[in-house]
Amino acid sequence: MKAKRMRTTKRVEQMREMLRELEGSGESVRVFCARKNISTWTVYHWRRRLREGSADRPAPDRQAALLPIRVVDGPATGSVSYEIGLRSGRTLKVMPGLNSTEVEHLLGVLERC
Predict the structure, then answer these.
(1) Is the pLDDT of residue 1 over 50?
(2) Model-level pTM greater than 0.70?
(3) Burial of 55: CB neighbours in 10 Å, binned 0-12, 13-18, 19+
């Protein structure tokens, strides 16, 4: 875990330096990124992470934590849907036919919001 923290700290410092360089260059994000051969997404992503203060925390492990579930009665429709409560307070309602890959993708997107 200590090695992961060190890599995260080093990456954060690299991104802070990159953003300082961008600001000092007077270039647009697009021009700067083309010159540095980096994606504009990288700049906007790290700007947001640093602004929110989430950059110093390592990314959460990909394995989801188990949370308590609550089973509730609903109308008998012949098909089952699920509601997944996220740590953020959001709820994802999974309808029949959505495969596990799609659910995993949606969960990842919602957890990053």
Answers:
(1) no
(2) no
(3) buried
Detail the DSSP E strand segments found in 1-113. 82-85, 91-94
Q: Domain spans of the chain?
A: 2-52, 62-113
The rounded distance, in Å, linking the Cα atoms of 60 and 65 is 10
User: How far apart are alpha carbons 86 and 65 in whole angstroms?
Assistant: 10
111 with 64: CB under 8 angstroms? Answer: no
How far apart CA 43 and CA 29 sit, in angstroms, is 8
All residues at 6 or more sequence positions from 101 whose CB lies less than 8 Å from its CB, including other chains: none
Q: How far apart are the first and last CA of the chain?
A: 25
